[in-house]
Amino acid sequence: MAHPKRKISKTRRDTRRAHDFLTGKQLGVDASTGEIHQFHRAHVHEGNLVYRGKVVVENYAKTV
Q: Is 12 helix (H, G, I), strand (E, B) or coil?
């Protein structure tokens, strides 16, 4: 069985494991549409692209 040539330091080991404790994405509810979406991201509601309660692009679903 293979053995490591050098001891791996605690810092290097812990840095590798740092990604095991990531948190989920922050979600918010748009007050005007009631749609759940990521913060600071536009979202599609009834075919329109909405950001911060305002319609940014109408008929967005047809253009994509």
A: helix
